[in-house]
């Protein structure tokens, strides 16, 4: 990941650990505000990260607010990881997708619709106006050259907002976003999703999964997208 960061005082590694260079002291504080509106001063921030959350916001308002907060030349980093894919066992993957399908029938409403439309297209529905942003780079990890692995259900948005000048990077086989796991892990992982699905509603699917896995672990892999955007020197914000 360090190869993807713009030049400056901030670098990062694939493990997600950020190293701040040329800074004598660092202090941290917290402010309880929304992504769309903050009390932070204009042009006061070097780096903004929004990890696993941009799809729950009013994205147009949030990106404008991030642009206002950033210094000219400052960097915005957005990340999203899709649902873990089961590799090397097609039967288990089909059952796993059927479990997703049950969740999709429960996740209803405008908020979920907007989130799915954005995530199912790997954040490609986000637009970065050229007057405000430059050097936009979209990095797709474990996506195998397409966006299919990000699609969770039929609520798919658009990709038309990706501009020709934006750079796309595809990185496959990232071991830090893969693992060997069994059915207990899959149950626990699924149990973190909202809204929660009663076990009784999908018990037959977990039974089928047990029969297919036979107590063995399978390889899982997460598709990940990271978007890096730099605020222009002449941004109106």
UniProtKB/TrEMBL annotation:
Keywords noted in UniProt: Methyltransferase, Transferase
A GO term for molecular function: S-adenosylmethionine-dependent methyltransferase activity
Tagged with keyword Metal-binding: no
InterPro entries given in the database record: Diverse_substrate_MTase (IPR051052), Methyltransf_11 (IPR013216), SAM-dependent_MTases_sf (IPR029063)
A Pfam family hit: Methyltransf_11
Limits of the Methyltransferase type domain: 33-78
Keyword Transferase: yes
Assigned protein family: Belongs to the methyltransferase superfamily.
Protein name stated in the entry: Methyltransferase type 11 domain-containing protein
């Amino acid at each position: 990941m360090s190869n993807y960061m713009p030049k400056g005082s901030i670098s990062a590694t694939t493990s997600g650990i950020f190293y701040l260079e040329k800074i004598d002291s660092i202090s941290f504080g917290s402010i309880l505000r929304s992504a769309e509106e903050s009390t932070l001063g204009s042009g006061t921030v070097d780096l903004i990260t929004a990890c696993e959350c941009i799809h729950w916001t009013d994205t147009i308002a949030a990106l404008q607010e991030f642009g206002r907060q950033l210094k000219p030349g400052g960097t915005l980093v957005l990340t999203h990881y899709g649902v873990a894919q089961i590799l090397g066992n097609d039967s288990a993957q089909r059952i796993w997708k059927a479990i997703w399908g049950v969740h999709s029938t429960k996740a209803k409403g405008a908020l979920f619709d907007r989130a799915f439309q954005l995530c199912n297209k790997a954040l490609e529905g986000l637009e970065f106006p050229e007057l405000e942003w430059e050097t936009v780079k979209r990095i797709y990890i474990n996506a195998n050259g397409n966006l299919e692995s990000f699609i969770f259900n039929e609520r798919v948005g658009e990709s038309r907002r990706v501009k020709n000048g934006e750079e796309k990077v595809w990185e496959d086989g990232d071991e830090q976003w893969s693992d060997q796991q069994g059915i207990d892990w899959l149950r626990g992982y699924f149990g973190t999703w909202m809204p929660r699905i009663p076990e009784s509603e999908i018990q037959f699917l977990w039974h089928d999964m047990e029969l297919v896995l036979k107590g063995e672990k399978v390889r899982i892999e997460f598709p990940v997208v990271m978007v890096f955007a730099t605020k222009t020197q002449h941004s109106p914000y």
